[in-house]
């Protein structure tokens, strides 16, 4: 296997499937199966999941809601998604722990770095909910921060697009895909991979990012097996 420990970043919207909101059980089950495939190869897996399928703090703020309250609502949405993914993984026979940056002791462990790393060493999938625990920070920032803290080898950003393009491939059929690209070129070209805070933090810590299509079954296993899937930023 190419990597020993990965951090998988999933968007909340990815869980919607073809729905307009909420969680699609079939999509959740597919993700659990793919994650199980790589844990069976001995890969240590941590996951950060967004909450955009339930609530977005920025959207709430644009409609007159206090931004801090809106962001806290978004953090709670990530915990809901984390619980859903935890249930799907455990139904697939994968031992899992959910840790939250916001203390909700009845449903999730508090985030403790050493405990998280110990879970990973024991073969448990660790899901990080609650973002960073702070408003104004996205789950992209939470993903990079947690990846650095647990000493992950790479961030795998699962999306519905098969990599990074020079323009939006869903709107422009002539869009050109990059197989590999440097951090510097992403910034020069103004490409949107992650928010600036997350991207800069990843660059400063030499943490590569692979953007790939998580909805194509088997892609996750192919990446950790060394196949050139998606776009690698390094």
Any chance you could write out the topology, listing elements then pairs?
Elements: E1 5-10, H1 25-39, E2 44-49, H2 57-62, H3 67-91, E3 96-100, E4 109-110, H4 113-121, E5 125-129, H5 139-149, E6 154-159, E7 164-165, E8 177-178, E9 180-181, H6 183-189, H7 196-204, E10 209-213, H8 219-224, E11 231-233
Parallel strand pairs: 1-2, 1-6, 2-5, 3-4, 3-5, 6-10, 9-11
Antiparallel strand pairs: 7-8, 10-11
Helix pairs in contact: 1-3, 5-7
Sum up the structure in keywords:
11 strands; Carbamate kinase; alpha/beta
State Rg.
17 Å
pLDDT < 50 runs, ≥5 residues: none
Would you identify the CATH architecture? Answer: 3-Layer(aba) Sandwich
| CATH secondary-structure class | Alpha Beta
The largest sheet has its strands arranged as: 4-3-5-2-1-6-10-11-9
């Amino acid at each position: 296997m190419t990597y020993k420990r990965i951090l998988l970043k999933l968007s909340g919207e990815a869980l919607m499937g073809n729905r307009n909101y909420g969680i699609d059980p079939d999509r959740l089950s597919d993700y659990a199966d793919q994650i199980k495939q790589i844990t069976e190869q001995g890969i240590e897996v941590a996951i950060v999941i967004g909450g955009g399928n339930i609530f977005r703090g920025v959207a709430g703020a644009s409609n007159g809601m206090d931004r801090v309250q809106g962001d806290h609502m978004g953090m709670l949405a990530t915990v809901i998604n984390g619980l859903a993914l935890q249930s799907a993984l455990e139904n697939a026979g994968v031992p899992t722990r959910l840790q939250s940056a916001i203390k909700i002791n009845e449903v999730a462990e508090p985030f403790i770095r050493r405990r998280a790393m110990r879970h990973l060493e024991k073969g448990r999938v660790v899901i990080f909910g609650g973002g960073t625990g702070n408003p104004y920070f996205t789950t992209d920032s939470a993903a990079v921060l947690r990846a650095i803290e647990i000493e992950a080898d790479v961030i795998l950003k699962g999306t519905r697009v098969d990599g990074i393009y020079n323009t939006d491939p869903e709107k422009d059929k002539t869009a050109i895909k990059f197989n590999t690209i440097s951090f510097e070129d992403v910034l020069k070209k103004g490409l949107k991979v992650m928010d600036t805070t997350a991207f800069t933090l990843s660059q400063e810590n030499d943490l590569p990012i692979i953007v790939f299509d998580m909805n194509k079954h088997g892609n996750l296993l192919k990446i950790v097996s060394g196949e050139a899937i998606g776009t690698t930023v390094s």
